[in-house]
Amino acid sequence: MGLKTLTMLSLFFVPLIIINTGYIGNPWLLIGLYITSGLGMSGIGMGIMHDAIHGSYSKNKTTNKILGYTFNLIGANAGVWKIQHNVLHHTYPNIDGADDDINQPFFLRFSPKSERLKLHKFQYLYVWFFYALSTIFWITAKDFVKITRFKNMGFLNKKNEFRKAVSSIIGWKLLYFSYALILPLIMVPQPAWIILLAFLFMHLVTGLLISTVFQVAHILPDTDFPEPDTRNIIAGDWYHHQLNTTSNFSPKSKVFSWLIGGLNYQVEHHLFPNICHVHYKNISGIVKKTALEFNLPYHLNKSFFGAIAGHIKMLKMLGSRDFNNVRL
Length: 328
Description:
Layout: H1 2-20, H2 27-54, H3 61-68, H4 70-73, H5 78-91, H6 123-152, H7 161-187, H8 192-215, H9 238-245, E1 247-249, H10 254-259, H11 266-271, H12 280-293, E2 299-301, H13 304-320
Helix pairs in contact: 1-2, 2-3, 2-8, 5-6, 6-7, 6-8, 7-8
Protein name: Acyl-CoA desaturase
Keywords: Membrane, Transmembrane, Transmembrane helix
InterPro entries: FA_desaturase_dom (IPR005804), Fatty_acid_desaturase (IPR012171)
């Protein structure tokens, strides 16, 4: 984890430092440096902050807290993510209206329980464009939209907690934009539109990679979308729920797994979010054997591209017709 942290932070910050020296006169080199920084940004999001905010990077709470702030350094917000991901997504995966990862804008339909529109027929084609734009929305508006929504849901109900959270979001974003965009606009001897385009390319790469990795683990034909009964209760226990709604992919690729922070082992992560991702491969055999022993599902795609193909198939199904995929 130490090596990964050093690698991803360097991959993110070193290109930005080079850019901010003001000596980059070639626009293609500028774009290449920004894209490289975007890969580092992805690595920070998937391989450092994800574990840290779950409290699984280290046994030391202070270490986890400090490294969780790496998410703020790449333009997002650790506090908002903790509610969205740790609380809502991990507690209610694939439950419409509760899992915040499938609560999407009207032009995307990620649950058979949400309203289907005619334009959803083509979502499997245009979803990639919105995946690519996701981190642009994240660093500009998403955190403010989410924090307001979470306040209305009953979170951040202590005195001045919401105001302090919003102030913190603004402060961290000003810091991020200062070294990732404003300083380059001042220092780099290139037209502003080229710098803005290079900055956009950085986020297009990051958004597409991160969104795809997270969504292909849940929005699939084989995974369930449970529906609460009249008492607002989901049938089965918590472990059944996690296994029914989550899928692994590309388990044999050690390099790929290292680069994406072990998120190809989503089953293990959802069952044991308090365990650091470097251990997922070692425990996956035990998890699979135990699941099969008790006649429980263990969803798996052999490759990342296989998972993407399954994701596309599910998006087509969600866009073409309503269907009931509830297994009680």
